[in-house]
C-alpha cells in the first residue's frame, strides 16, 4: 500500500487496521458480494490504492464530517476512516449484508465509521449530518434532486470527491450547483482511464 500511495505516510496502526479490513473483506466477500468479480485479482490496486488517492484532499481538523455514499466493501469510506482518524465518517449502504459487513469490519479495524443502513434518495436519510465537509462516491449515480439536497448540506468550502470511469463526467458539472473541478487525478493503475475528480465550490469575491 505504501508503494501504491506515493507521498502518503501510513503508520503501523493504520497499516494494521487496513490489514484487518482486508482479512474481513476476503472472509465476507463470497456471501456478501463486496467486490466485483473482475477486480478480485487486483484488490489492492483497484480498491485500496484508489481510495487512498483521496487523502491529500481531506482536512485534518478534528471532527470534520465525511459522508460516503454506497460504501459497499468500505471503498473509499472505511479506508479513509482508517487512515484519517480525525474525520467523522458516515458510511451509507442500502444492502443489509454489506451494511453488516461494514459495521463488523469497522469494529475489527478500530475505525470511527458510523454505518447508516439506507438508500440514497430524496428526501435524504435523516441520519445524515446537517452539515458536511466532504462527500465521497464511487461507482454509483444519483438523481439531480438528491445531488441538490446534498449540496445544500455542504459547508461553504466543502468538497465532493467522485471516482469516475472513462468518458464519465461528474454529474455536478451538468448542474448549476456552483462547483468547479479542483483536481482531476488519474488513478494508480491508470490503464482504464479511471480518475478521481475533486469538485469544490466556486470561491466568489
Tell the overall outline.
globular
Helix and strand run: HHEHEHEEHEEE
Going by helix content, strand content and strand pairing, the class is alpha/beta
Mean pLDDT: 87
Helix content: 25-40%
Distance between the termini: 41 Å
Measured by DSSP, the beta-strand proportion falls in 15-25%
Number of helices: 5
Instruction: Detail the poorly predicted runs.
Output: none
Count all strands and give the number.
7
Major β-sheet profile: 7 strands, mixed
User: Could you tell me the radius of gyration in angstroms?
Assistant: 16 Å
Order of strands in the sheet with the most strands? 3-2-1-4-5-7-6
Task: Explain what the structure shows.
The protein has 205 residues and is of the alpha/beta class. It contains 5 helices and 7 strands, in the order ααβαβαββαβββ. It has helices spanning 12-32, 43-52, 77-83, 96-109, 144-153; strands at residues 65-69, 88-93, 113-117, 132-138, 154-164, 179-186, 195-201. It has a 7-stranded mixed sheet. The chain is globular. The mean pLDDT is 87.
Keywords for this entry:
205 residues; alpha/beta; 7-stranded mixed sheet; 5 helices
In short:
The chain is of the alpha/beta class and 205 residues long.
Secondary-structure topology with pairs:
Elements: H1 12-32, H2 43-52, E1 65-69, H3 77-83, E2 88-93, H4 96-109, E3 113-117, E4 132-138, H5 144-153, E5 154-164, E6 179-186, E7 195-201
Helix pairs in contact: 1-4
Amino acid at each position: 500500500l505504501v508503494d501504491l500511495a506515493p507521498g502518503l505516510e501510513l503508520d503501523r496502526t493504520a497499516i494494521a487496521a487496513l490489514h484487518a479490513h482486508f482479512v474481513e473483506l476476503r472472509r465476507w466477500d463470497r456471501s456478501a458480494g463486496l467486490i466485483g468479480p473482475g477486480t478480485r485479482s487486483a484488490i489492492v490496486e483497484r480498491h485500496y490504492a484508489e481510495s487512498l488517492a483521496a487523502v491529500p484532499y481531506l482536512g485534518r481538523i478534528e471532527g470534520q464530517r465525511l459522508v460516503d455514499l454506497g460504501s459497499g466493501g468500505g471503498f473509499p469510506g472505511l479506508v479513509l476512516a482508517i487512515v484519517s482518524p480525525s474525520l467523522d465518517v458516515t458510511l451509507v449502504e442500502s444492502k443489509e449484508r454489506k451494511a453488516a459487513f461494514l459495521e463488523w469490519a469497522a469494529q475489527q479495524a478500530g475505525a470511527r465509521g458510523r454505518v447508516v443502513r439506507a438508500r440514497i434518495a430524496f428526501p435524504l436519510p435523516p441520519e445524515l449530518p446537517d452539515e458536511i465537509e466532504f462527500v465521497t462516491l464511487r461507482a454509483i449515480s444519483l438523481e439531480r434532486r438528491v445531488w441538490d439536497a446534498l449540496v445544500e448540506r455542504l459547508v461553504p468550502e466543502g468538497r465532493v470527491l467522485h471516482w469516475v470511469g472513462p468518458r464519465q463526467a461528474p454529474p455536478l458539472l451538468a448542474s448549476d450547483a456552483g462547483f468547479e473541478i479542483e483536481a482531476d487525478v488519474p488513478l494508480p493503475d491508470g490503464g482504464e482511464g479511471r480518475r478521481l475528480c475533486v469538485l469544490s465550490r466556486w470561491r466568489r469575491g
